[in-house]
Design a protein that fits this description.
This is Acyltransferase. Keywords: Acyltransferase, Membrane, Transferase, Transmembrane, Transmembrane helix. GO terms for molecular function: acyltransferase activity, transferring groups other than amino-acyl groups. The chain contains 16 helices and no strands. With about 400 residues, the protein is mainly alpha-helical. The radius of gyration is 22 Å and the shape is globular.
Length: about 400
């Protein structure tokens, strides 16, 4: 899952009216390594869930129920899918941080450059796997659906995902579009808090009626609450905690827990071995971990290697599912379960590093330079009418 570089932008207290909020405090550290650490935890949790925590026998991977293959770790890794919820909390925090004092154009360019190069590469990998070494059980995505994946708009266009994990990218996109609205007027304490309350209220309305036009797309209750919690905790980090922010954070948790427990109950009813209240406890721990960062209780985490590890999270998230399952299908017979798990995990991490170095970095540099030049080029020089 994509997040921007965790560089802390300098505060500009002058941009906030004195009556709206306390003066912003300048961040103490140039990078939030603790957030990098949480991103790594979230990514590895999702990876281990897909490899060892799915309570089903499917030819897409092992062909054997993972609960029987890995009985010692299954009770833990079966909850690894909730790493996605941690990603969404972090995303709210980091997107608000990176967008502060930025223009809408800069925000859109930065998000495009961050998301798409590695994503497009993963599409090529997924198409090769689906066409070259299919699992023989699932329906191969059509050429039309594969092309639609290039846009990242599979959900509204009702196209099949090439990689199951792509569904979260649509959720991220809707968050960016919603946040762009408030960014258009410029971010400050008051605007962002009002936005969070309104967005959270929209999520509550969707809980009551799923058929409200557009709200069901842009205000899914669980995801909205998670993003709002991250934004709120960034405001705490930037301005310091106050009663209004504590109330907003508590409201986000209450909305989150309602939808999370309902969703987990539904999974349990379908035979998935998860306790709804263990899931709630886990996501609550995620809240507390990010809150510790917001309250500056984790500034002792400054291990430089976490920056590199954090940079691998997005390519790992994109590659681990279909590519990892293809490796598992080929290796499980000759190697056995634990050996296959180890080899596949290490291989995916190494490949993620290679993609980051050889694909992401060069393509992002090229795209960033090109888009920045386009943005800086006067509009009149691009108008054919001015050539004559």
């Amino acid at each position: 899952m994509s997040l921007p570089d965790l560089q802390v932008s300098p505060s500009q207290p002058g941009s906030l009216p004195a009556k709206a909020a306390p003066e912003a405090r300048k961040p103490a550290a140039p990078r939030l390594y603790a957030l990098d650490a949480l991103r790594v935890v979230a990514a590895l949790s999702v990876l281990l869930f897909h490899y060892t925590g799915i309570d089903a026998a499917t030819k897409a991977n092992w062909g054997v129920n993972q609960k029987d293959l890995f009985p010692s770790i299954f009770p833990v890794t079966s909850y690894g899918s909730y790493g996605v919820q941690l990603f969404f909390i972090i995303s709210g925090f980091v997107i608000c941080m990176s967008a502060w004092d930025r223009t809408p154009g800069h925000f859109v360019r930065a998000r495009f450059v961050r998301l798409f190069p590695a994503y497009w590469f993963s599409i090529v990998v997924a198409v090769v796997i689906w066409r070259g070494i299919p699992d023989g059980q699932r329906t191969v995505p059509s050429i039309s659906d594969s092309l639609t994946n290039i846009t990242m708009l599979q959900v509204p266009l009702s196209a099949q995902h090439l990689v199951g994990a792509y569904w979260t990218l649509w959720v991220e996109l809707t968050f960016y579009l919603i946040f762009l609205v408030v960014l258009w007027k410029g971010l400050d304490y008051l605007r962002v808090t009002i936005f969070c309350w309104l967005w959270l209220l929209a999520g509550v309305l969707v809980q009551q009626d799923q058929d409200i036009p557009l709200l069901g797309i842009f205000a899914q209750p669980l995801n909205t609450a998670l993003f709002v919690s991250g934004i709120t905790m960034y405001l705490m980090y930037r301005f310091g905690p106050d009663l209004k922010l504590w109330l907003l954070l508590a409201a986000s948790w209450l909305v989150m827990q309602t939808d999370l427990v309902e969703h987990a109950d539904g999974l349990k009813a379908k035979g998935m071995d998860r306790d709804p209240y263990i899931a709630l406890a886990l996501v609550t721990v995620f809240y507390l971990l990010v809150l510790a960062i917001a309250l500056r209780k984790a500034e002792w985490v400054r291990w430089k290697w976490l920056a590199t590890a954090g940079a691998l999270v997005y390519p790992l998230y994109l590659l681990h599912e279909e590519l990892g399952w293809a490796m598992i299908r080929k290796l499980y017979g000759p190697l056995g379960a634990w050996e296959t798990l180890a080899v596949t995990t290490v291989a995916i991490v190494v490949l993620s590093w290679l993609v980051h170095k050889l694909v992401e970095n060069p393509s992002q540099r090229w795209l960033r330079n090109r888009l920045n030049k386009e943005a800086a080029y006067p509009t009149e020089h691009r108008n054919p009418a001015h050539r004559y």
